[in-house]
Amino acid sequence: MTRALRQAPESAGAVDIAAASPATEALPQGIHRTELSAAITAARDALLKLQHADGHWCFVLEADGTIPAEYILWTHFTGELEPEIERKLAARLRAKQADHGGWPLYEGGDLDISCSVKVYYALKLAGDDPSAPHMVRAREAILARGGAAQSNVFTRLALAMFAQIPWRGVPFIPVEIMLLPSWFPFHLNKVSYWSRTVMVPLSILYSLKGQAQNPRDVHIQELFVTPPEQERHYFPIRSRLNKVLLYVERTARLLEPLIPSALRRHAMKKAETWFTARLNGEDGLGGIFPAMVNAHEALILMGYGPDHPLRVQAKKAIQNLLVDEGDSAYCQPCLSPVWDTGLASLALQETEGGHTTAPVIRALDWLKERQILEQPGDWQKQHPHLKGGGWAFQYNNSYYPDLDDTAVVAWAMDQAAAPEHYGESIQRACDWLCGMQSRNGGFAAFDSDNTYYYLNEIPFADHGALLDPPTADVSARCVALLGRLNQPQYAQSLKRTLDYLRQEQESNGSWFGRWGTNYIYGTWSVLTALEQAGFDPQESFIRKAVDWLKQVQRSDGGWGEDNYSYFDSSLAGRYQESTPVHTAWALLALMAAGEADSESVKQGIIYLLQTQQGDGLWDHPAFNAPGFPRVFYLKYHGYDKFFPLWALARYRNHLNRQC
């Protein structure tokens, strides 16, 4: 593909938008050139102020109350209490209690029993009086929904380690899973990376029947409708296959006392070797909070002393996730610097009319240094001859490069039109991505062909997120990159992915959003990718998506989408109010489909202009992504900062081209 060099001189810094924008006397009614330019300038300057000196961005990644509660539980497991942090975390958790008395998985959501049980326990560990009004309300709400026995597997595992329920109330996770052959129905390589990194240290905790120190001897028996020892319904049947697998699991559990001690020691050593090799320094095992906590606790149980370097690093990795707001604090599930930097770069490139200015060059250079080229990774089990070339989501997570991040970063580098500087990085990224394509033509986040769907029926997998199958949104990002490159060696891979995306389109015209909420995110991902691949926007399946987006536009000109759409697809593209992020995604999708002059886009632009804050940015409390649909949700604080800017700039550029 031949493109004009669009890189601005480094000394140019940010382009003056007003100067770059020709006079546009014929702007649509209700939108004024000066207002549009001023809004873009303010948002761009605000975003640039948040850039770190070395060129990268890293915005807060907020989760529901589960993670801060687990932080408190973790300190009481280890006995290494952190009173000041505990006080702040508890203040935050109290403030997030909903009107229904419990805690939801996202802002405005229904009570989630697992989250509420963990938060209640964390508050009681932190010293809250169970007779205090907020604790009474929480307890009554939890009991009204069946009590703590109705919690999910991860919550019950925590309760077992705090001796609140018997071990029979949790799934059988013996450390001998490390010894299973690859042909066995269950094998570590058949589950997602996040499942592997969580399960391996957890299997050690299970096999050693780890017990929390619980120095204040706090219990929550008042949260059970039936005394835990008498409870017989810890495992509700989810399907016929689940019933069979539960029977097999219960039978296998009876055989655990017969496991030879030498075999257990061998399995224990293999598990220890596996997870300590992947501890990832102060960035933590897998770069995700649950795996980090399990790893730290497993190190303690295996006799690593408080001053052992691995234990010190593992603890620091968890503490690095804290966000201290003064009077309160919360804990992030992970950090997102590569994702934030890649997307911010794309938004700024659009802002500067396609130029890549000095701040973005610093960002791309920072990213270039973090490409994972030669380091070992779990993905090599399936692709031993494939060269590395991906990027992780976090600062460091070399075992687990992320296909979505890789496509975004390489896209921004290609847009810089500096092949002498980024060409090799882009090539390695594309080669690696194509090597990671799944057999159905799609792309998953971290693995290929991770589609052993029967494993979602094992008792451990009541969260339904054990696997990492291909998804439309990640596949679309790969299409965006491969499509804009348009190189013959990627043509077959690109064609297969496009076929996959056509098959994944929903009957209403949208696409499912696995990693962003939800159908609006998925549809933005695909329509943007199809534009990069040079598709005619008049193709019928694209028109169908456009029609759907217009149908779900709200009367105020914006768009919104409820996280409950993961439970009820009739809520696709619908929410009680508009949000800047959903509006930006919808606008970018429509403009990618040739709708920049439509009334829908005009109204969406007006919505963004009217909701911009005094600091030049946007902010909305709604969570905008699932970690795991139906189970765990996130608010990417960066999304409010670069997606609306990206949409406004795209619109301004379209107007400029008409002049």
From TrEMBL:
Q: Which Gene3D superfamilies match?
A: 1.50.10.20
One annotated GO molecular function is:
squalene-hopene cyclase activity
Keywords in alphabetical order: Isomerase, Repeat
Would you tell me the protein name for this molecule? Squalene-hopene cyclase
Q: What is its EC number?
A: 5.4.99.17
Quote the pathway field: Secondary metabolite biosynthesis; hopanoid biosynthesis
| Record InterPro entries | Hopene-cyclase, SQ_cyclase_C, SQ_cyclase_N, Squalene_cyclase, Terpenoid_cyclase/PrenylTrfase
GO biological process, any: triterpenoid biosynthetic process
Superkingdom to which the source organism belongs: Bacteria
Keyword rRNA processing in the entry? The reply is: no
UniProt domain Squalene cyclase C-terminal: residue ranges: 335-653
Q: Which GO terms describe its cellular component?
A: lipid droplet
List, alphabetically, the Pfam families matched: SQHop_cyclase_C, SQHop_cyclase_N
Family (UniProt): Belongs to the terpene cyclase/mutase family.
| Domain Squalene cyclase N-terminal: from-to ranges | 40-325
